[in-house]
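Hi Q.,

Before the meeting this afternoon, I wanted you to have the zinc ion prediction in hand. No need to reply - just skim if you have a minute. The sequence and ligand are here:
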Amino acid sequence: MQALSRDTPVIFPVAALEQHGRHMPLFTDSLLLGEIAGRVEAQFSTRVLLAPLQWLGNSQHHLDFAGTMSATPRTYLDLLAGQFENFIAHGFRRLLMLNGHGGNDVPGKQVVYELRQQHRAQPGLLLLFATYWDLALTAPAAAHAGLQQTRMGHACEWETSMLLQIAPQLVGDLAAVPPVEFGNAFEPATRGWVMPDRSPPGHIGDARHATAEKGAALLQVFTAGAASLVQRMLQWDGSSWEG
Ligand SMILES: [Zn+2]
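Predicted structure with the ligand bound:
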C-alpha cells in the first residue's frame, strides 16, 4: 500500500441493506454493486484500488419493512464524509464513490461537495460521485431486446434480472409478484416519500419479466460504463477541469 502511487484511482462502493419486496434479498444492492465493482477492478488490476464496500446506506424510506438497516441521513452524510476523508488523509487524489442505491444519491453528492470545500487549497483533488445505472454509455433498456422497463426501479425487472444472473438461489417466485407502476409523482418536482406511499409490497417495476440473460446484458453495460469513468480518471492530467 505504501508503495502505491497516490494518483491511483480509488473506487469506494457504497450500497445498502434494505427490503427488496417479497422476492429479493435484503442485500440486493450490495450484491449487485459488489459484482460490478469487482468486474471493474478485474479490468484494471493493480492500476486501481478497490476499497471494501460500505453496506450500510441511507434507507430510511424502507424502514416500514422488516430487515431494513439504515443510517439516519445526517449520520450517513458524516459516515461517508469520514470514510472518504480517510483516503485523502492517506494521500490519494483521485476518488470515486460508486453508488448502488438511490437513497445514497443526495448524501453522496453532498459529501463530494463538502470535502472539496474543506480541502479547497489542495490542487489536483478529484472527488467524484456516480450511481452505476447512470453510467451506462448506451441506454440500458437497449442492452437486451426483451427488456420492458426503461429505467431503474426497485426489486424490479432490472435488479431481479441481474440477481438471477449472479445468485439465482436468492430470487423468489416471480409469478406471484404484482407489477407496480412508476407513476408521476408531481414531476418535475421532487416529492419526499416513504415506500408505503407508492408500493404496498415494497418493490417498484415489474419483476415478472426478469431473466438471467437480461441480467447478464445489464451487468455488462453497467460495468462498461463504470469502467469508462475509471479510465477517464486514469487519463486525467491532474489539473484540468475536463476529464
Ligand atoms: Zn435495489
